[in-house]
Write a structure and sequence with these properties.
Elements (H helix, E strand, L loop, with lengths): L1 H14 L5 H16 L3 H10 L11 H15 L8 H20 L8 H18 L7 H9 L12 H19 L1 H6 L4 H17 L1 H25 L3 H24 L5 H4 L4 H8 L5 H16 L5 H11 L1 H19 L5 H27 L3 H22 L4 H5 L2 H15 L6 H17 L13 H24 L1 H20 L6 H17 L33 H11 L8 H13 L3 H4 L4 H9 L9 H17 L6 H11 L17 H10 L3 H17 L5 H25 L6 H19 L17 H18 L3 H18 L7 H10 L3 H18 L4 H20 L5 H23 L15 H13 L4 H18 L15 H17 L9 H21 L1 H14 L4 H13 L2 H11 L6 H16 L8 H13 L3 H24 L11 H32 L1 H11 L4 H12 L5 H17 L6 H13 L11 H28 L2 H21 L6 H13 L3 H5 L6 H6 L3 H11 L5 H26 L7 E2 L1 H9 L3 H4 L4 H29 L5 H17 L3 H16 L5 H15 L5 H18 L5 H15 L1 H30 L31 H17 L13 E7 L4 E7 H9 L9 E2 H8 L3 H12 ...
Parallel strand pairs: 3-7
Antiparallel strand pairs: 1-8, 2-3, 4-6, 5-6, 9-11, 10-11
């Protein structure tokens, strides 16, 4: 094993170091082989956990990390259980590792990545084992969290705590995080495993995990607070950092599971204040984690909207977020330009929290049906709106965008409501504020420079603007006037201010221009074109140019644009403003048609350095396009003079620059293609050249000037073209080649700027400078001839010539042959398609002028294309190119023929190739794989017939192409009919139908072109050869000759198919339908019948088929009704239920038989008539045959009187069964099913006949029956019997609807029963004398109570009724318990301490028979009160659990009732404390741990109802102190268990002092032992053996501190010895003796014998006074008092214990039970007793008397004042400002865990704090400010 380990580790180290190249690959292969071994996990586990001799880890971190990866692979995706050996090995190794590394070790301090990886691995192990193998995972883990006492002062181990947090985070991620689940492939096994683990954690450990996490976090918060108060030093700073990390991860862990465990665990009275505290913690990570936790709490899905609303109200996040937003915004403002990314992320987190909170409220307001919830949620949502707007206005876009979803939801909601609800002032005010924020956010940041910004940042801002625009659009939909007016006002005000010389910030200026830019989109009600800017009347198009629009007023948008131009904003010294100006004016060209005076200022701005002449290339590039767009849009408004001026202004920009892309080792062709396809400024410069063409075209009325101007532009380009051509010596001269390409493209774009050449040319048309374009074309051709090997040049030439042709028409036609020859000299296959498209365009433009060119071109082109089409297709790209080439070629051929250029095919040059051309067309026509090409081929043949086969019109004239008609007759027509018979020719395919129509067109073209010859050919030659009957052939040829094209296409399509006889077909089919109805379908052929129906539909006789079939169905139904149903009608009226049942059953069976017969035949007909249903019924818009058959059944069967009798029979049978008789349910059910399947044909909602006719009748009868039934049962039954009968009726009706009627009737019948048997008699049943709710509770009738609960919960008012009744009965019983406890609980009296009671219990004779005194009675009553309350609680808990299904609503009512009557007893806190005290002293003796825990749990249950928990705390602290000091607790575990329960219930602060008392006892025992060791070591002997308990004064109740005394010399010596020892070990402390709390053991010699007495310290001091006097001497009361200095009250108690109790150690003179100042005392030397050891107990009051209770109350009231003061100051310090009501509510909420403060008391404390200047009252007298 050791050798394998070392080899494994070495392989990992080598594999992780690529430098060891020789062994690297071998190591990887070895590791791969190891991982494939099933036992690899053992090696990996050993590598990870194996220690070295020093206690550290043996192997390097990288090796251990890889080992964890191996373990991960072993554990991940493992869904079957691990075997026991494997599980136990891994488990034990993991636990040992955690103990050694995390508890006693450094927790991987040098390799933090291992901590994270180990947490992930342990999580995978957990997922594999938790459900079945290791259910105690968390129990084992929690045991490791508490550190050994010797290792840490902290209560929780930091490292283990962090490991726990990491594991829980990982678990949550694995089982509940949807993002993680979505990222990995779905696995059904993993999904099921995760669900099992999730459910198991919820059931077993969710509460404990949550408690552990929150306890650790709370402890961390306390430690953080302590460390921060102490100040900063290296040690504390390190500890503080660790604590912050613990709290941070703790809160993150909490956030990870809040979404998938019970909300009642995570949202409690403790967690909410804790989270709010952490939300404003100085530590940023903690705040971020807390914000996330709250976000997930708010987002948690809850079933009930009311629960969600309650959660939101409990959290009260609206006010918190308001305050935090205000606080963080102030901090943000104070930082100025210094950005704190962390704090901004916190604001972002707060924004997300607000967003989620708002969205949840929106769901409640929009989706909840409860008006109350919607209203309350709406109020809460409205409170959030101002905070949302402040977040939206945040200067940081990330923070701003957090509320976008909420804002969008709110606007959409209001948009939906705006049409139905008027906009109230509040909503309008919100929209106005929102619009202000949006307009502000639309601005650029003043400090930003968009030109220098990163492209991503600019894109982000543009995206933000787009989002804001959507909000503005949504606002516009709600209030259009508000938005348009706000935008208009802001834009105009800014532009006017700038025009008036006011200094405007650049971002404000840009925003104003931007608003003008988008106003056209905002103002959706504006017109189009000029109407958008000018309020002119509608004019005809031809009169618009003549109209002077300047006399018409401008629209709002027109005003804004006018102000934009006139303000001079284009001169604003910021590029962004200028560019936005250019974008705006180019966008709204129509404005300048109505205000022409604005054109020149705009063009001037574009021409100078702001635009076209900007030094920035990016600016120029964009303005090139905008300038072109402006010129193109407003060219008719620009005069020739301005056009010349503009052209001169841009002439210097017409210089072409070439940019080369950067490529690695490219060849010249790659560079050329990349340079052309890359985006460069030249692409934009082409727009400038097009604008040049447009400007020159404006001089068309001065041809010479236009020609000169155009030549002045193109001449430099042509010269430069010549230079570049000479420079391009070869393919390596890339720059020169590209320059040629660019210039040709520029020349083409100049031509593109001109209007297109008209065809035909109108009269008076002025042509463009044709000579110049001819020269340009020749120059381009020269370049092409020299450089036709370069594709970029060919592409540019093709583009340029297409534009020149469009501009000049046939002027340059003589250049086309040379152009074609050079383009075809070198080309790639993909170019051929573009080339043919170019030829097609040229044909369109040049028509006959292109004849010679095409004559030369078509032959080589056809040969080349046929060669390409003949090549095999090798891939998808080839297939696409092949198809596209074929279609482009066919398109070109059709264009040639349709343009009457067909003579090129039969010219001397090409006629030899005609046959090949026609053959290739035939092949394409025959190819069914490409219907588009097929259609084009037949179209080509049709056009050819038109031009080549036309019969000569005059004798002696020759046909254009003699003999072509024979080719058509012999080849093309047979091919057409052959295509029709191809198997692939599916007429259902739309593309095939198109081919079919084209064949019909072709055939009709032949017929009409050749006339009688064609008619004779078809009738006498071709069609007979195809075996057509003569009549059919004649009909076909006649239709082809006489019908119009559309009619013949329809005929031809319909004709396609076999010949059938419809009448004969229907005759056969109708006979077969009757046979089917007569149940003789077995003798028929389905295929034959189907074909009959198919043919009838195919040949347009679907109507005949449909009507005939429905007629046969109707006749059959009438026959069946007469034969079966009518004879079954009831004979006469009878009262005999049996006879009624039999007659009804017969009728229903008859109806069912007819139905079965009908549907059986109808089902077969549906199969036969499928084609009719699919084709005919859809087009004719009639029901399918099955639906038609059902409608006919309704019409002929379900009609009066049949329907009336059937429904009456159903009702009769139901009534008979309700009366207790047995019926045949199946007959009713069968009939009801018929009605269910039939739907009302006249109903839009397709309602069934059952719902229409049967169900209403059943419900009417049922309502009458159960109204009477309820009243009858109340008269004859007691409450339990009534409930049994009613529940029985519910079961009967449910069974009846299931077996007889329909389940859809169940809720309606249930409502009738609920209304008449439950709702109407709720209070009557509950309050029935001797049998109602109280009686059932008294007699423990759980079954009856459960029945009552089940019935009452069926109705909405039932549960409130039951809840109220239970509350009343609990309070009544509770008051009886209270009365019993106060009947004898009188004040006064003293009793001995508990030992007296014990002693008296053991005494005999008279002592035992003596009645207890008043105090003892009161104690007994106190204990009895608690026990009675517990018994009552147990009783109702049992009822709630067994009878009331643990209903939460009833639980709430019961809890409220218990809380009410318990708090009516003002002594309840004291009684509960006494009960616990009694049980923890003697009541738990002999009980098991489980029994102890049950008693304490029950006590906590009662304690939970107390509102004044601080009163209980005071009593409990006193009783606990006595138990600890006197050693009277029977179980230390029980004491600590009770303390733990109180801590869980009330928080750690509640038990902090109580835990301190236990700590003092532990430390005192250690100190006492050290003192005794000290005495022994120094050989110090003392007469008195001293036992001392040192109590911390702040922990212990020091109510007896005033009772002191004068110690005798013996005690003084011993006490001072201890003081010297103690103070030598603890400097700075002060000891004060408390004799009232001590006791002593003293041996006393009496006359008869010695006795060992246990007495109090005071009693010892008194007894020592009698040591030095004679037995018959006396000491008076005053002498004793002066000698001991014991206070009177205490002295009387002590003397009473010594002289008046059972054991009289002293004699009182005179005798009596009370001690008076005049008494005297002597030593009772004659005392004797049977016991050697005697305890002399002090007379003490067990239950407070009135005076003591008043003192306690005053003390508590004083403490409450301080608590209220602290709470008020804490709240106001956080909130700064609050209204009075809000402050009172918040104080009440925060103090509710300790007591219920009185609002009057809170008000007094506020007044007191105002006097002490902690607070100040605001001017409104209703709110306060905090004074720091």
């Amino acid at each position: 094993m050791e050798q394998d380990l070392n080899q494994f580790v070495q392989a990992i180290l080598i594999a992780s170091d690529p430098a060891q190249s020789s062994l690297h690959q071998q190591a990887l292969q070895y590791l791969t082989a190891v991982q494939q071994n099933s036992s690899a996990w053992r090696l990996a586990l050993a590598v990870f956990v194996e220690p070295d001799p020093t206690g550290g880890r043996k192997h390097p971190p990288h090796a251990r990390f890889y080992a964890l990866r191996v373990l991960d692979e072993f554990l991940d995706n493992r869904f079957e259980p691990l075997d026991d050996n494997t599980f136990e090995t891994i488990r034990q190794s993991v636990l040992n590792y955690i103990q050694s590394e995390y508890i006693y070790g450094p927790a991987e301090a040098d390799a933090s990545f291992l901590r994270n990886k180990f947490a992930h691995t342990l999580t995978l192990f957990f997922l594999c084992t938790y459900v079945d193998k290791w259910p105690t995972f968390f129990t084992d883990f929690f045991a490791l969290i508490h550190p050994p006492e010797s290792t840490s002062q902290a209560p929780f181990n930091t490292h283990v705590s962090l490991l726990l947090f990491h594991i829980v985070l990982e678990i949550s991620g694995e089982v509940a995080d949807q993002l993680i689940k979505a990222a990995r492939p779905f696995s059904e096994q993993r999904h099921a495993r995760d669900a099992r683990v999730r459910d198991a954690v919820r059931d077993r450990d969710a509460a404990r995990i949550n408690e552990a996490v929150l306890t650790i976090v709370a402890d961390g918060v306390e430690r953080m607070s302590h460390l921060r108060k102490e100040g900063v030093n290296p040690s504390s700073e390190r500890e503080l950092d660790q604590t912050i990390e613990v709290v941070d991860y703790g809160v993150r862990t909490f956030a990870s599971y809040v979404g998938w465990i019970d909300i009642n665990l995570t949202v409690t009275r403790d967690t909410v204040p804790l989270l709010f505290t952490l939300l404003s913690d100085p530590s940023l990570p903690i705040r971020l984690a807390t914000a996330l936790a709250l976000t997930r709490i708010v987002a948690k899905g809850l079933k009930e909207p009311g629960d969600k609303l309650q959660l939101i109200k409990v959290l009260s996040l609206g006010q918190v977020l308001d305050a935090l937003e205000e606080k963080t915004r102030a901090e943000q403002k104070s930082r100025g330009s210094d950005t704190d990314e962390g704090e901004e992320s916190y604001r972002e987190a707060l924004g997300k929290l607000l967003n989620v909170l708002g969205l949840e409220l929106c769901k409640l307001t929009d989706d909840c049906s409860d008006e109350g919830i919607r209203s309350e949620a709406g109020l809460l949502l409205n409170q959030l709106l101002p905070v949302m707007l402040r977040f939206l206005a945040d200067e940081y876009d990330d923070t701003c965008s957090t509320v976008f979803p909420l804002l969008q939801t709110i606007l959409l909601s209001r948009q939906r409501k705006s049409s139905s609800e008027p906009l109230d002032p509040t909503k309008r005010s919100f929209l106005s504020s929102l619009l202000g924020v949006i307009l502000e956010k639309l601005k650029w940041d003043e400090e930003s420079d968009p030109e220098d910004m990163d492209e991503d940042d600019k894109a982000a801002f543009e995206e933000l603007r787009k989002e804001l625009r959507t909000f503005m659009d949504s606002t516009l939909m709600i209030d259009p006037e508000l938005v348009t007016e706000a935008v208009r006002t802001l834009a105009l005000n800014t532009l006017t201010a700038y025009q008036n010389g006011v200094a405007i910030k650049w971002n404000d200026a840009e925003l104003a221009v931007y608003l003008v830019y988008i106003f056209g989109e905002i103002n959706k009600s504006g017109g189009k074109g000029r109407a958008a800017f000018c309020q002119a009347p509608a004019l005809q198009k031809d009169k618009r140019k003549e109209t002077d629009y300047s006399e018409y007023p401008l629209t709002s948008h027109g005003e804004m644009l006018y102000a934009l131009v006139q303000s001079g904003i284009s001169a604003y010294p910021h590029k962004t403003v200028q560019m936005q100006f250019f974008e705006t004016v180019a966008r709204y060209g129509d404005f300048f048609k109505v205000r022409k005076e604005c054109i020149m200022p705009t063009l001037q701005a574009m021409l100078d350095t702001r635009g076209l002449h900007s030094p920035e290339s990016s600016t120029r590039s964009r303005v090139y396009y905008l300038f072109y767009r402006f010129i193109r849009e407003d060219r008719n408004e620009i005069s020739p003079e301005v056009a010349v001026s503009l052209l001169e202004g841009i002439r210097d920009l017409l210089v072409i620059q070439v940019e080369l892309p950067e490529l690695e080792n490219p060849d010249p062709q790659d560079i050329l293609q990349e340079a052309v396809s890359a985006s460069t400024i030249f692409d934009s410069q082409l727009y400038l050249f097009e604008a040049v063409g447009t400007l020159v075209s404006l001089l068309q009325k001065s041809p010479d000037q236009a020609a000169a101007l155009l030549l002045s532009v193109v001449r430099p380009l042509l010269d430069e073209l010549s230079v570049s051509l000479q420079a391009a010596k070869g393919p390596d001269d890339v720059l020169a080649i590209l320059k040629v390409h660019h210039i040709i493209m520029a020349l083409g774009n100049i031509a593109k700027g001109f209007p297109e050449y008209p065809n035909p040319v109108p009269e008076g048309y002025t042509a463009p400078p044709l000579d110049v374009f001819r020269e340009v074309g020749q120059a381009i051709l020269v370049c092409l001839e020299a450089m036709n090997v370069f594709r970029v040049v060919r592409d540019a030439t093709r583009f340029a010539f297409a534009r020149i042709l469009a501009t000049t028409g046939s002027t340059v036609a003589q250049l086309i042959p040379t152009l074609m020859a050079n383009l075809l000299a070198h080309f790639e296959p993909t170019e051929l398609i573009d080339f043919m498209n170019f030829i097609g365009l040229s044909i369109h433009k040049l028509q006959e002028d292109l004849l010679d060119v095409l004559d030369q071109l078509i032959g080589p082109l056809s040969t080349h294309i046929n060669g390409i089409l003949a090549q095999p297709v090798t891939g998808t790209d080839d297939q696409v190119t092949h198809v596209d080439t074929k279609r482009a070629y066919l398109g070109l051929l059709n264009s040639i023929v349709s343009s009457k250029l067909h003579t090129i095919f039969i010219s001397d040059r090409n006629k030899a190739q005609l046959e090949n051309l026609l053959e290739s067309m035939l092949q394409l026509a025959e190819d069914p794989s490409d219907p588009t090409s097929q259609k084009a081929a037949f179209s080509f043949f049709g056009r050819c017939v038109n031009v080549w086969a036309e019969v000569p019109k005059a004798p002696g004239d020759q046909q254009v192409l003699p003999g072509f008609e024979r080719f058509v007759y012999e080849r093309v027509i047979p091919t057409a009919f052959a295509v029709l018979s191809l198997p692939q020719f599916n007429i259902k395919d739309g593309q095939i139908v198109v081919v079919l129509h084209e064949i019909a067109n072709f055939l009709q073209t032949v017929s009409k072109t050749r006339g009688q010859e064609a008619f004779d050919f078809f009738v006498n030659v071709f069609l007979p050869s195809q075996n057509w009957p003569q009549a059919t052939a004649v009909e076909f040829a006649t239709k082809m000759r006489d019908l119009d094209p559309k009619g013949f296409r329809k005929y031809f399509t319909d004709f396609h198919g076999p010949d059938v006889s419809i009448d004969e077909t229907w005759a056969k089919l109708s006979r077969n339908i009757v046979e089917i109805q007569n149940h003789n379908a077995a003798n028929l052929s389905f295929e034959e019948n189907h074909r009959y129906a198919y043919n009838m539909v195919l040949y347009k006789h679907g109507e005949k088929l449909y009507k005939g079939t429905t007629q046969l169905i109707a006749e059959n139904l009438e026959k069946l009704a007469k034969e079966y149903i009518i004879p079954a009608f009831p004979a006469a009226v009878t009262d005999d239920p049996v006879q009624k049942s039999q007659e009804g059953e017969m009728l229903l069976k008859a109806l069912k038989k007819v139905w079965d017969d009908h549907t059986s035949s109808l089902s077969k007909l549906r199969d036969v008539l499928k084609y009719m249903d699919r084709v005919y019924t859809t087009s004719a818009k009639v029901p399918p045959i099955w639906d038609a058959g059902l409608i006919l059944f309704i019409k002929h069967i379900i009609k009066p009187p049949i329907e009336d009798h059937v429904i009456a029979a159903i009702l009769t049978l139901i009534q008979v069964e309700r009366d207790g008789y047995t019926i045949n349910r199946s007959s009713v059910k069968g009939c009801v099913d018929v009605f269910i399947q039939l739907t009302d044909p006249d109903s839009r909602d397709a309602i069934s006949l059952y719902r229409r006719d049967v169900e209403p009748a059943v419900l009417r009868e049922s309502e009458t029956f159960y109204r009477q039934e309820g009243e009858k049962l109340l008269e004859t039954c007691d409450a339990p019997e009534y409930l049994r009968r009613v529940e029985g009726r519910f079961h009967e009706e449910e069974s009846r609807t299931h077996h007889i009627l329909s389940t859809q009737t169940t809720p309606h019948l249930q409502r009738i029963l609920e209304q008449h048997l439950v709702s109407a008699h709720l209070w009557t049943v509950v309050n029935m004398p001797n049998s109602g709710l109280d009686a059932m509770i008294d007699t423990d009738k759980f079954d009856d109570l459960a029945r009552l609960y089940r019935l009452f919960t069926r109705v909405s008012e039932g549960l409130p009724c039951l809840k109220k009744s239970l509350r009343e009965t609990v309070i009544r019983r509770g008051k009886e318990i209270n009365d019993a406890s106060t009947g004898l609980a009188v004040d006064g009296g003293e009793s001995q301490d508990e030992e007296v009671g014990e002693a008296s219990a053991k005494a005999k004779g008279k002592a035992k028979a003596r009645a207890p005194n008043a105090a003892s009675q009161t104690l007994v009553l106190a204990l009895k009160w608690v026990q009675d309350v517990l018994d009552l609680k147990d009783k109702f808990d049992t009822i709630w659990s067994e009878a009331f299904a643990r209903d939460r609503e009833l639980e709430s009512g019961l809890n409220d009732a218990f809380q009410t009557f318990i708090n009516l007893n003002e002594k309840s806190p004291e009684f509960i404390s006494l009960f616990i005290d009694d049980n923890l002293k003697k009541g738990l003796k002999g009980k098991s741990d489980t029994e102890v825990d049950m008693v304490l749990d029950k006590t906590i249950t009662v304690f939970r109802y107390i509102t004044d928990k601080d009163v209980f705390e005071r009593y409990y602290k006193g009783h606990l102190a006595k138990r600890l000091l006197l050693g009277r607790s029977v179980s230390d575990d029980a004491e600590r268990g009770m303390l733990a329960k109180l801590k869980v219930e009330c928080g750690y602060q509640f038990t902090q002092k109580l835990e301190g008392m236990f700590h003092d006892m532990k430390i005192s025992a250690e100190t006492l032992q050290a003192y005794r060791d000290y005495l022994a070591k120094n050989s110090i002997e003392q007469d008195i053996e001293l036992s001392v308990i040192v109590m911390t004064s702040t922990f212990w109740p020091m109510s007896h501190s005033a009772a002191s005394c004068t110690f005798p010399a013996q005690l003084i010596s011993a006490s001072r010895s201890f003081e010297r020892f103690y103070l030598s070990r603890h400097s700075g402390r002060r000891l004060k003796w408390q004799p009232s709390l001590g006791n002593a053991d003293v041996r006393v010699q009496f006359k008869s014998r010695k006795h060992d007495l246990n007495v109090s310290t005071f009693a010892l001091v008194i007894l020592l006074l009698f040591e030095d006097i004679l037995d018959d001497q006396f000491l008076t009361y005053e002498e004793i008092k002066n000698a001991t200095a014991i206070p009177d009250v205490e002295l009387k108690r002590q003397l009473q214990s010594l002289a008046c109790a059972k054991y009289k150690i002293l004699k009182k003179h005179p005798p009596g039970r009370d001690v008076n100042p005049t008494d005297s005392f002597s030593f009772n030397v004659d005392f004797s007793a049977s016991l050697q050891k005697i305890k002399i107990s002090t007379i003490a009051s067990r239950v407070e008397n009135t005076e003591e209770r008043k003192e306690t109350k005053d003390r508590i009231d004083e403490e409450r004042k301080h608590q209220m003061d602290a709470c008020i100051v804490r709240i106001m310090k956080d909130r700064k400002h609050m209204t009075h009501n809000d402050l009172v509510n918040e104080v009440t909420r925060q103090l509710a865990s300790r007591f219920q403060p009185n609002p009057v008391a809170i008000k007094k404390r506020i007044e007191n704090l105002i006097e002490r200047e902690y607070l100040e009252r605001c001017e409104d007298r209703k709110s306060y400010n905090y004074l720091a």
